[in-house]
């Protein structure tokens, strides 16, 4: 790890600590530090410990998962436009999770939806690697992502179409928009295990992703086992992305934006971007979540909607600035 | 010229290596032993099977039959990292996906050696040495995407040198370089074996004049078979050139170094 890398990681950790403090304090009810020590008879105590703290932890987990899987997918595909959302992995996770809502299985046990989300995401990554082939170029991966997004959203639309009643359809729609609101410590418990395990798997791929800078031939002659790399990538992205989509719905563009913003600071070596992207993703999701909480509107703006509103133009800007490289 | 005999000798050897694509034989039972201390150039017309042979030699491709051995051991039975430490491979027109700094690119060559914690002091020393050998020390912090073709080629050679392999195998490393940079690169290959006679170089080349100039030994490959194998004077005879390329060409061991003259196309 270079000194520059360590400085960036230290700064991001500091930013994350500041944002976490702010996240616990802010919302419809302002809870300053004095409320923390007031004891459990203060109504703000319940808000802090039962709502704000789980929400803050989830923001770290989900943002970290999305930033890290974005950086890993970009490293593997050697494509700065790769992202779990763009490549259809999030949509496949959502499809898996929506099926449990539609079939009414999600209520049977709290982990069912997360498991279905992870299965969907893993199928998504596997299909992506299969469709784009072993030597897939930039355009092939994006087209494979378009196909996955189409198939997954058709599946979700079908579930909405066939929903037994308006209430079931509303449940699916609410969840799809992506939000950290009203999540409990139970959601944290469900998501934490898979996200931590998946993140460790992805972090172990740093060396393989670095070697892939020299293409598949280059990586193989550097002693990298690409089949192992592909399996670990599918597992890691499946666990992190699947679990985060299952507890928060679809929050897109985090994995696209964060590595892109960090590249000029950290350098472009894919392995060096992994940890900063996880921290940056956590900071971005938490900052966005604080903003949606503070937005003065009758109903809270959903986090996924806010991120899409910001991410869309950003994606357009990236595409325009990269147009020459894409042809 | 023959296989490795008992298969125990030092060196990189191909023993009856044959490979076919869609029923068409690309290599028809090649047996060659590359010796340490030599620069061996593999030349031959387009489609002769040069790149396929190199891919078999470095363990990227499994031959249909036959076996490649490194110091007596079948190369495909070696652990990939071990193989990567011993053979450095420079593919034809290599890809560099990201805008890395030159020293970071060269550091990728240490991947087979480095532990999980990144580059050690020894790794960094090897990188610095490779940068110095290729005259790139002043470019260490430059973004590779801003380099000229010649600088980029040197950086890619430095990447292989940083791995401190015993064997350096390169597919068309001089393609696209101007004569001055071709000579610079050729010097690097010759220096690689001169500095340590335990090391060896295998390169494919299109430019026969350059092959005559830099190689101790030339193997002429045509239609998947060995047509000639020996010193430049022995391998680049008018008969071999006529048979391999259908050209009239002469090799002269002139006073200013070997020269190769292309007279013209032979009418068949």
In terms of structural class, how would the helical and strand content of chain A be classed?
Answer: mainly alpha
Alpha-carbon distance between the two ends of chain A: 35 Å
**Alpha-beta content class of chain B:** alpha/beta
Largest sheet of chain B: 6 strands, mixed
Please give the oligomerization state of what you see: heterodimer
Rough shape of chain A?
Answer: globular
The total count of helices of chain A amounts to 15
Give, in order, the helices and strands of chain B. EEEHEEHEHHHEHEHEEHHEE
What is the C-alpha radius of gyration of chain B, as a whole number of Å? 19 Å
Helix content of chain A: over 70%
Mean pLDDT of chain A: 88
Low-confidence stretches of chain A: none
What order do the helices and strands come in, and which of them pair?
The complex is a heterodimer of chains A (327) and B (268).
Chain A: H1 3-25, H2 33-36, H3 43-77, H4 89-102, H5 112-132, H6 138-161, H7 166-176, H8 185-203, H9 206-211, H10 215-221, H11 226-248, H12 254-266, H13 270-294, H14 303-321, H15 323-326
Helix pairs in contact in A: 1-3, 1-13, 3-8, 3-11, 3-12, 3-13, 4-5, 4-6, 4-7, 4-11, 5-6, 5-11, 8-11, 12-13
Chain B: E1 12-21, E2 24-34, E3 39-43, H1 50-57, E4 65-70, E5 73-74, H2 80-86, E6 87-90, H3 102-107, H4 121-133, H5 149-162, E7 167-171, H6 179-195, E8 200-204, H7 208-214, E9 217-222, E10 225-230, H8 232-235, H9 238-245, E11 247-254, E12 257-265
Parallel strand pairs in B: 3-8, 3-9, 6-7, 7-8
Antiparallel strand pairs in B: 1-2, 1-4, 4-5, 9-10, 11-12
Helix pairs in contact in B: 4-5
């Amino acid at each position: 790890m270079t000194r520059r890398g360590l400085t960036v990681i230290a700064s991001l950790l500091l930013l994350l600590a500041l944002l976490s403090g702010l996240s616990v304090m802010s919302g419809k009810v302002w809870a300053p530090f004095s409320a923390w020590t007031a004891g459990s008879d203060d109504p703000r105590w319940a808000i802090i410990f039962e709502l704000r703290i789980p929400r803050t932890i989830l923001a770290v987990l989900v943002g970290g998962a999305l930033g890290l899987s974005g950086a890993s997918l970009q490293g593997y595909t050697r494509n700065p436009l790769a992202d779990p959302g763009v490549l259809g992995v999030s949509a496949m996770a959502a499809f898996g999770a929506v099926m449990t809502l539609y079939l009414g299985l999600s209520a049977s046990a709290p982990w069912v939806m997360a498991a279905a989300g992870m299965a969907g995401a893993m199928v998504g990554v596997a299909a992506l690697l299969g469709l784009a082939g072993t030597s897939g170029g930039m355009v092939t991966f994006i087209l494979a992502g378009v196909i996955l997004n189409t198939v997954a959203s058709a599946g979700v639309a079908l579930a909405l179409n066939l929903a037994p009643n308006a209430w079931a359809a509303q449940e699916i729609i609410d969840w799809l928009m992506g939000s950290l609101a009203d999540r409990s410590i139970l959601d944290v418990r469900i998501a934490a295990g898979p996200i931590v395990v998946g993140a460790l798997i992805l972090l172990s791929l740093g060396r393989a992703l670095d070697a892939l800078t020299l293409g598949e031939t280059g990586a193989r002659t550097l002693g990298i086992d690409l089949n192992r790399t592909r399996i670990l990538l599918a597992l890691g992205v499946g666990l992190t992305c699947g679990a985060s989509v299952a507890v928060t719905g679809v929050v897109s563009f985090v994995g696209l934006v964060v590595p892109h913003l960090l590249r000029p600071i950290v350098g472009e070596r894919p392995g060096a971007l992994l940890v900063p992207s996880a921290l940056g993703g956590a900071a971005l999701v938490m900052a966005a979540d604080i903003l949606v909480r503070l937005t003065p509107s009758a109903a809270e703006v959903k986090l996924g909607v806010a991120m899409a509103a910001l991410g869309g133009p950003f994606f357009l800007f990236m595409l325009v600035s990269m147009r020459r490289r894409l042809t | 010229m023959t296989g490795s005999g008992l298969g125990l000798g030092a060196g990189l050897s191909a023993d009856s290596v044959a490979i076919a694509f869609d029923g068409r034989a690309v290599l028809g039972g090649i047996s060659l032993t590359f010796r340490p201390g030599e620069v061996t150039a593999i030349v031959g017309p387009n489609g002769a099977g040069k790149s396929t042979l190199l891919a078999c030699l470095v363990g990227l491709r499994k031959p249909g039959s036959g076996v490649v051995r490194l110091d007596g051991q079948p190369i495909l039975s070696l652990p990939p990292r071990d193989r990567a430490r011993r053979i450095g491979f420079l593919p034809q027109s290599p890809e560099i996906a990201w805008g890395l700094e030159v020293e970071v690119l060269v550091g990728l060559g240490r991947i087979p050696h480095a532990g999980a914690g990144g580059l050690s002091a020894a790794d960094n020393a090897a990188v610095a040495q490779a940068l110095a050998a290729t005259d790139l020390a002043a470019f260490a912090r430059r973004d590779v995407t801003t380099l000229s073709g010649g600088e980029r080629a040197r950086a890619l050679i430095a990447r292989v040198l940083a791995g401190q392999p015993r064997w350096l195998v390169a597919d068309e490393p001089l393609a696209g370089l101007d004569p001055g940079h071709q000579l610079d690169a050729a010097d690097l290959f010759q220096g690689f074996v001169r500095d340590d006679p335990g090391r060896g170089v295998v390169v494919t080349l299109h430019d026969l004049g350059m092959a005559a100039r830099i190689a101790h030994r030339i193997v002429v490959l045509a239609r998947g078979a060995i047509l000639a194998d020996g010193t430049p004077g022995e391998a680049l005879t008018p008969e071999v050139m006529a048979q391999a390329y259908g050209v009239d060409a002469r090799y002269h061991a002139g006073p200013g170094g070997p020269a190769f003259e292309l007279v013209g196309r032979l009418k068949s």
